[in-house]
Amino acid sequence: MNLCVLADLPAAVSSPKQEDAAPGTNRGLRKDWSRLAGHTVEVWLGGEYVASGMVDQAAEDGSVLWIAGEGITTRRLFDKSTGYQVWL
Predict the structure, then answer these.
(1) Contacts for 39-42 with beta carbons within 8 Å, 24 or more apart?
(2) Residue 78 and residue 86 in contact, taking contact as beta carbons nearer than 8 Å
(3) How far apart are CA 78 and CA 21, in angstroms?
């Protein structure tokens, strides 16, 4: 886990809301993960921030995606059925 990213977060971080997205943008919760390769996203679980990074690859059925490794962190797999949410 990239501890530097977590250190930059404010003490009380809450899950983003769709209405927080800027009007006219494509930002927000993504239900179809299959088309996110190349996009930078945030991953949340149970209302808590988990990770952010560029989507390296996503399954064609949208069931899982991989966030590319950066620096000393390794590539990470997230499974939608576990409850993870992805925000663009």
Answers:
(1) 39/88, 40/88, 41/67, 41/86, 41/87, 41/88, 42/16, 42/86, 42/87
(2) yes
(3) 23
pLDDT band, very low/low/confident/very high, at 6 (cuts 50, 70, 90): very low
Does residue 84 register a pLDDT over 60? Answer: yes
On average, the pLDDT of the chain sits at: 81
Residue showing tokens 């494509």: 26
DSSP assignment of the chain: --HHHHHTS-SS-----GGGSPTTS--SEES-GGG-TT-EEEEEETTEEEEEEEEEEE-TTSSEEEEPP-TTPPPEEEEGGGTEEEE-
> What is the amino acid identity at position 2?
N
